[in-house]
Amino acid sequence: MKQDELHGSCLCGGVRYRAALPVFHASHCYCTMCQKQHGAAAGSYANVAGAGFVVEQGAELITEYASSAEGRRGFCRVCGSTLFWRSTQSPDRIAITLGTLEPEYDGIVQRELFVDQKPAWLPHA
Question: Which fold does the domain 5-115 belong to in CATH?
Fold first, then answer.
């Protein structure tokens, strides 16, 4: 495994990918669409260059859903793992899900998006 790449996979292991560094920023997105897709308080992503994103295995298992005019969400159609989010307005970037990375992401999360939609049930620091 190269040190200048991130690697990840879905829950069933059918999809494997790599993404070239650097990570432009990592974020937690609290929009209701991310909450519904992830089944969690937020979607957590590493924003990288789209040109450096390569599906090494299982491309035929990836389904993309146009959740809005601004974005498409990619997931494994076998196990349902959310893999990425693509902006239609910034097609040169892709936001890969932090929870699918192997080994786990060791960078910091620099941004929180849509904090006005952050669930009240989250613990407060």
Answer: 2.170.150
